[in-house]
Structure formats: structure tokens, C-alpha cells
Design goal:
The structure is a single chain. Helix 1 (11-29) packs parallel to helix 24 and helix 25 packs antiparallel against helix 27 (733-743). The longest helix is centred in the C-terminal third of the chain and has 27 residues, at 680-706. The model has no long low-confidence stretch (mean pLDDT 95). A ten-stranded mixed sheet has the order 2-1-3-24-23-4-15-22-20-21, sandwiched between helices. Strands 5, 10, 13 and 14 form a four-stranded mixed sheet that branches. It has a four-stranded antiparallel sheet with strand order 6-9-19-16. It contains 27 helices and 24 strands. The protein is α/β, with parallel strands linked by helices and 748 residues long.
Length: 748
């Protein structure tokens, strides 16, 4: 299939698409390759979920569902840009924006009461959190920093952007996790010996049974695990760590994944809020209940809800909040100038993005005065907190990393078929009362059970055998290609990992592993081993489960090259196609804020360029598409020249921005195709374009620069006016004219 699917997403990569997609389409058209666009944005998903609430002209196709079918077919090739993993706060903001524009989608009922509200709540659940990734990721993950970029940063560390800062000699910064009652301690796991259907039940103290999930199908040899976190122990942990942070004058920070773990982590966040502001929530319990304050949504929700109260009462509550700030340790700030703290909303500090910054800043985060301060990083669950603890302790002992000397850490991640905790959303429950939550087969046999107390957070998750087998094979393949040691980050003392280790040991026997260095280490030891090699300039492949895949592919790229947004992320789909993800850096809302206020978009599209190159290489290798191979090599050459000439976006107005960087990529790609001799047809096709771009590039950059330094109106955030977006992203009349004349891409 000579077609590549490009995804319309959200925020900064969404904006960048308006400038880049006409270029990609125009170039690939000359190679006989079509580029299709599919909408997986938050607003698009909301509209596709509620066609019955919309007028006929407002209805949109369910592109995500269509892509879910396509990833199960051979020949599918998707370039997926970062999208919003929506929190409740973001979902409600998107709904409000759509409603203001005349789209009569229903309000989101946070606490549904009627049957209709329950149905609406259930439908919106498909838009919350990481709704997209589990659908598309029907394969395992191969992520790494592009070699050309890694080598360039080694020689030119300033190119990585923000530098790695020194650690103070007596640094008190540390990671604090629970010592009992967490998900790690309570985990139970089993492997199905035959296909089966199970159900999840809650049994109260009187023996009454409530079915939480009616049917869950398991394949033969599939792993099913379950666990819970004790809310009593969680609150105790928060109380102790808040007190300790105050006594040691440390900045308190909380690092969760409330976007991806959309059911389990918001309540954990909520318990942090109610513990930190304990006096406030106890004193105004009655008022908060009446106006519907939900601590899971943070202080933003609280401040919004108290607007329903008389002004005098509002001021009283605000003073009580200020008093709580004084009596507790300083909180990590998201925006010191605006007074926005770590606890304002659950989606503001996300562990995979925030902990690398703690490492980069020498164990510090920003305080209320806009200054860096040593932090106590709260990561409640031990399952993954220990590896972060290890890297913090390593830096306290050995100092900051040296980008000119360190090695690289690549990742092979178990991701296919909604693997592990990232596929747990529909199997996560808050215990309705004291009792037992259990998994039972059709004959009534209890497979796992946990004694829980009211509000404890229980979840179950799976790993299918076909996914595990493919994961092991992909790891061995990368070890052979690179010669690097592979380390499976698995803990035999963790129930789920113990089942995985059995499969890893079994499937490794299917391959010729002679001469390969293969280790299985618990995450804390894997981190220690990897860091020893890393500091010595040696390369390692981390073979991890789904969560660590996410965490490590932010952590190491940010240390190595300054960003995870440029990571090369390839997902060989189990059905034979390919999913090419453009980095791990999120959708950069701050970049959008700057663009709207200053007309400067600092989003770096290098990851998109690399994804195009990887997709074309895939087409050449897997499908025998020769022109794709030639164009893919030209992309690689163009990216190399982009780095060499330092044509990436700067952070400030007056520097090159995303649009200018893309113009240079277009120039260098055209030049690479005009210079190559493998395909004469492509050479002749791109020679005039290369000459015209070289002649016009200074004019194009000036026209883009002239559009900067003033606010941009695109009439919306989640669902802007796309005509206005296009005009804002294509301010160069010269470039627009070239696209039309030389590539047949009519922009306006």
C-alpha cells in the first residue's frame, strides 16, 4: 500500500502540521506515495464519540476506530504525533470550547447520578487519559536517540539546549516512596493455562457480591496480575513525608502519571491534596460537599467551585489555604509568577517528564520565588520509584553527567496488545467498602483476591503471550544489530515480573544468542548497571515493560540530547505494518502559549522529519519501494545538514522558529534528492525545487520573522479555526508560491 497516514493531534505538533504536511505530501507525491490525514485530537475524539448530539453537518468520522482496524492489517504505515492524554480538567475545557462554538456535546458528569449521566460518563471515558496509544500500539516499541543527533551533541553539547547543572556536595534531594501497602507489595499474578473468561467481583463484609467487571477474556498463556494501594497507608506516607520536608526545608514535589493512569492516579493525587490542605478540607467539609469540590482535580477545581459561595466565604477559604501554605513545606511550582503549584491540577507534573528535569537541574525544582531548590520527590509506589531513587543517589555521589562522554541507552518496550498497567483503565476500581476484590473464573474458582478497605485503589492488567514473545525477539534482534548488551528490567520479587521472567527465559531459547550479553535485573540494579556503563561512555539496551518504556525514553534522551521530543520511536506492528511515533516529549502546551502571545513557535519538528525517514526506510526494506528508500536516505542527509548548520528552533522571538526550521528542512531535503544518483527521475524532479529554495530561503526566513513578535488569534485552543491556523503557520508568501508551483500543493 503506497500510503502513509499522518495524524492530526493537539497543541504544538498540531500547529506544526499545518506547515509541514503540505511539504511532506508534495515531496512524497513525486515518489508515488500518498499521504492521508486522520484526526485523533481530543476535540476530534469528543465529536466522534457523540454524533447523536450533533447536527448532520457537524458530525465527523471516528478516525481512531478506523486506525484501530488498520493497525491489524499488513501494509499499514502510520506517523503518530504526540496528542493530549486528557485529564478531567482538559476534557471539560475542550467540551466547553466545543459548546461555545455551537457543538451541543453533553457536559461531563464527574459524579453521575441518573442512568443517562452514567451512559454519558462511560462514553467520555473513551476520551480520557491515554485513549489513543492503546488502540494504535499493536506492536512493541523500539526507541532510541537518533545516531546523528547523539554524535552531534557529543561534539556540541550546547546544542542540547538547557545544560545539566551541578549537584551540591551535601545535596539532600531524594526520592521518597512508600515502604508498605503499595501496589508493589500487594501484587498477585498468574498465567492462564488455557483460554478462559473471568470476572472481577467485590464481596462486602456480609458476603454480598457486586460484579465490577462481568467478562474479561484471557488467551492461553496470558499473564493477568492484580494489586491495590492502601489509602490508609498512602495518607500516612503523605503525612510523614510532608512533615519531613518541612523539618529539612526541602521543596515538596509529587510525581505521578495522572494522564495515562487516568483512573488510579487522580485519586492518589487527590489524597495528596487533602493531606497537604488537611485543615482546609476538614474545616470546610460541608461546604465543599455541597458545591462538589473534587480534590482529584486539584486546587484549580477548588478555586473554581468556591465561586458558587458568597464572596465573604470565598475569601475566608482562600485565607485558610494561604495559612496551609505557611504551615507546610514549600511546594514545587509549575509557574511561580502565576502562583501555580504542583497540586493545582493532576496533569501539570507528570513523572516521566518531571523526574528527568529534577536530574537535569541538580536535584532541584522551582519554588514560589522563582528559584531552584532541593526537592523531596514523592513517588508513592515502589514498583518504579526505586530506579528513580537510584539515579538521584548516583548523581549525589558522582555529580552531573557529561554529555560529551556518556553512552546511550536505547529501549525495547513491551507495549503490544495494551500490555500491563497502561491497559488497566477498564479494570481499575475504588473499593466501594471494606471487603474483598477478587478475580473469579466461570466455575467460581478464585484466581486472585485482595482484602481491601473502603476507597483503596485496586487494578488488574494483562500481558498477552504473543506480545511477550515478539518483545523478546525484538530485543535479541537489536542486540545482534548493535552489539550492545540487553538488560531485562524485571524483578523476580514482583509477582507480575516473576511470570514474565519465566517467559523470557523460555523464548530466549528460540534464538541464537551466542556472543550476546543478556541480563535480567530488578529495576534498581538495572539502573545501577546501566549508569556505570553510561558514565563510562558505553551503550546499553534497556528491555522493559510498558511503564518503564515510557519513563526511560524520557529520562535518558533528556540527559543525552536535551529532549525526548527527537527520539526515534518505531513500533513494528504484529500484523506486519509500522507505527512511527514522533518523540516522547508530549504536546508542549507552553509552546502554544508562547505562539499565541508572541507569534513564535519553538516546537522542534526534527522528530517528525526522522519519523518520515524511518517510514520511508521501512517501505524500502519491507515492501521493496525503491523510491521510498532513496527519499528516506535524503531525509537522513537533510536532518544531518540541519544539525550541522544549527537550523533548529530557538526559544525566543527573533530566533529561528518551527516554521523557519521546516523551511530549511525542505531546502536540504530537496538538495539531497537533487544531488543523489540512485534515481534519475527523482533527481530531475527535485533539481528545480532545490535551486528555487536555495535562491529564496533568505526571503522566506525574513517573511516568517516579520510575522513574529505579536499575538496570534486562532480562535480556540482545542478546536481552533483551521483557516486562521493555516495563515498563522504559513506567513511566507514566497514559500506558499513555491509549494504551489513546484510541488502542486495549493495551501490557500
Amino acid at each position: 500500500m503506497n500510503k502513509i497516514i499522518w495524524t492530526k493531534t493537539d497543541e504544538a505538533p498540531y500547529l506544526a502540521t499545518f506547515a509541514l504536511l503540505p511539504v511532506i505530501r508534495g515531496f512524497l507525491k513525486k515518489g508515488g506515495i500518498e499521504v492521508d490525514l486522520k484526526d485523533i485530537s481530543l476535540a476530534g475524539r469528543i465529536l466522534a464519540t457523540f454524533p447523536d448530539y450533533l447536527e448532520e453537518s457537524q458530525r465527523v468520522p471516528d478516525d481512531l476506530a478506523e486506525l484501530g482496524e488498520l493497525v491489524e492489517k499488513p501494509g499499514t504505515k502510520i506517523i503518530k504525533l504526540p496528542n493530549i492524554s486528557a485529564s478531567v480538567v482538559q476534557l471539560k475545557a475542550a467540551i466547553e470550547e466545543l459548546q461555545k462554538k455551537g457543538y451541543k456535546v453533553p457536559d461531563y458528569p464527574e459524579e453521575p447520578q441518573t442512568e443517562e449521566e452514567k451512559k454519558i460518563h462511560e462514553r467520555y471515558a473513551t476520551c480520557l487519559g491515554s485513549a489513543v496509544n492503546p488502540v494504535l500500539r499493536q506492536g512493541n516499541s523500539d526507541r532510541r536517540a537518533p545516531k546523528a543527533l547523539k554524535e552531534y551533541v557529543k561534539k556540541n553539547p550546547k546544542a542540547a539546549g538547557l545544560p545539566l547543572k551541578d549537584w551540591e556536595k551535601d545535596s539532600k534531594a531524594h526520592v521518597a516512596h512508600m515502604k508498605k501497602g503499595d501496589f508493589f507489595e500487594n501484587e498477585k499474578s498468574f498465567t492462564a493455562d488455557s483460554p478462559m473468561t473471568v470476572r472481577i467481583e467485590f464481596v462486602d463484609k456480609n458476603g454480598n457480591v457486586k460484579v465490577l467487571k462481568e467478562k474479561l477474556s484471557l488467551e492461553k498463556d496470558e499473564i493477568l496480575s492484580s494489586t491495590f494501594i492502601s489509602v490508609k497507608e498512602l495518607k500516612k506516607y503523605f503525612e510523614e513525608e510532608i512533615k519531613d520536608a518541612k523539618e529539612k526545608d526541602l521543596l515538596l514535589s509529587l510525581h505521578l502519571k495522572a494522564t495515562m493512569m487516568k483512573v488510579s492516579d487522580p485519586p492518589i493525587f487527590g489524597h495528596a491534596v487533602t493531606t497537604f490542605f488537611k485543615d482546609v478540607f476538614e474545616k470546610y467539609e460541608k461546604e465543599f460537599k455541597e458545591i462538589g469540590v473534587n480534590p482529584n482535580n486539584g486546587l484549580v477545581d477548588l478555586y473554581k467551585k468556591i465561586e458558587k459561595l458568597p464572596e465573604e466565604k470565598q475569601e475566608e477559604i482562600k485565607k485558610a489555604i494561604e495559612e496551609a501554605y505557611k504551615n507546610n513545606p514549600d511546594l514545587a511550582m509549575v509557574d511561580s509568577d502565576k502562583g501555580i503549584t504542583n497540586l493545582h491540577a493532576p496533569n501539570l507534573v507528570i513523572v516521566d517528564a518531571s523526574m528527568p528535569v529534577v536530574i537535569r537541574e541538580g536535584g532541584k525544582m522551582w519554588d514560589k520565588n522563582g528559584e531552584l531548590k532541593q526537592t523531596k520527590a514523592l513517588i508513592p509506589d515502589r514498583t518504579y520509584a526505586t530506579m528513580y531513587r537510584e539515579i538521584v543517589e548516583d548523581c549525589k555521589k558522582n555529580g552531573k553527567f557529561d554529555r560529551t562522554k556518556i553512552g546511550t541507552v536505547q529501549n525495547i518496550g513491551l507495549m503490544a496488545k495494551k500490555a500491563e498497567e497502561y491497559g488497566s483503565h477498564d479494570k481499575t476500581f475504588l473499593a466501594p467498602d471494606d471487603g474483598i476484590i477478587r478475580i473469579v473464573d466461570e466455575e467460581g474458582n478464585v484466581l486472585t483476591e485482595h482484602k481491601v478497605e473502603k476507597s483503596d485503589i485496586w487494578r488488574a492488567y494483562q500481558a498477552k503471550d504473543i506480545a511477550v514473545k515478539d518483545w523478546v525477539g525484538l530485543a535479541v534482534h537489536r542486540a545482534k544489530v548493535t552489539g550492545m548488551p540487553i538488560v531485562f528490567w524485571l524483578d523476580k520479587n514482583r509477582a507480575h515480573d516473576a511470570e514474565l521472567i519465566k517467559k523470557v527465559e523460555k523464548y530466549l531459547k528460540d534464538y541464537d544468542t551466542e556472543g550476546l550479553e543478556i541480563k535480567i535485573l530488578r529495576p534498581v540494579d538495572a539502573m545501577k548497571y546501566t549508569l556505570e556503563r553510561f558514565r563510562a561512555g558505553k551503550d546499553t539496551i534497556a528491555v522493559t515493560g510498558n511503564v518503564l518504556r515510557d519513563y526511560l525514553t524520557d529520562l535518558f534522551p533528556i540527559i543525552e540530547i536535551g529532549t525526548s521530543a527527537k527520539v526515534l520511536s518505531i513500533v513494528p506492528l504484529l500484523a506486519g505494518g509500522g507505527l512511527f511515533e514522533t518523540g516522547a516529549g508530549g504536546s508542549a502546551p507552553k509552546h502554544v502559549d508562547q505562539f499565541l502571545s508572541q507569534g513564535h513557535l519553538r516546537w522542534d519538528s526534527t522528530a517528525e522529519f526522522n519519523a518520515v525517514g524511518a517510514t520511508l526506510e521501512f517501505m524500502a526494506q519491507k515492501e521493496g519501494h525503491k523510491k521510498a528508500g532513496v527519499m528516506g536516505k535524503a531525509v537522513e542527509k537533510a536532518v544531518g545538514k540541519l544539525l550541522e548548520n544549527e537550523k533548529w528552533p530557538g526559544r525566543k522571538v527573533g530566533q529561528l522558529d518551527n516554521r523557519g526550521s521546516q523551511a530549511y528542512f525542505m531546502l536540504y531535503w530537496a538538495e539531497a534528492l537533487a544531488e543523489q544518483d540512485e534515481d534519475k527521475e527523482l533527481k530531475e524532479a527535485f533539481k528545480p525545487l532545490a535551486e528555487k529554495m536555495k535562491e529564496s530561503i533568505d526571503t522566506i526566513i525574513k517573511e516568517i520573522a516579520d510575522a513574529e513578535g505579536k499575538p496570534v488569534d486562532i480562535d480556540g485552543y482545542y478546536f481552533p479555526d483551521e483557516d486562521k491556523v493555516l495563515k498563522a503557520m504559513m506567513p511566507s508568501k514566497t514559500l506558499v508560491s513555491i509549494l504551489d508551483e513546484y510541488l502542486g500543493e495549493k495551501v490557500f
